[in-house]
């Protein structure tokens, strides 16, 4: 492996960028549920979730807490866990392609696949965080 690549993979700046890229998805979604409340309520109602205000604000809280944990690397395991459960529940509640037909089923299927891929990214981030912490404890990584 080229030395520059090795240094980059061990760097704090690339680690911060990777966390930011993954957290941005959840941060933007959580903020939109707070800043565009009516849209959030309509989204919850369209999914059949009532009371819409409760599900909207609960979703916002989960998304923002999870994003915070990732961005600031505080209780990363907890943040990625709640976001992974949130995404899995979203597949079952909203993107239940197995109960749909036609183009609607295809769209829901691809959303479900995207959610599963993001869950994989969250798991990889948690694993990387764990090993980075172990290396930090050994004094190998700053």
UniProtKB/TrEMBL annotation:
Keywords: Membrane, Transmembrane, Transmembrane helix. The chain crosses the membrane at residues 52-71, 78-98, 110-128. It comes from the Bacteria. One of its GO terms (cellular component) is membrane. It is found in: Membrane. The keyword Cytoplasm does not apply. Its main location: membrane. This is DoxX family protein. It comes from Acinetobacter guillouiae NIPH 991.
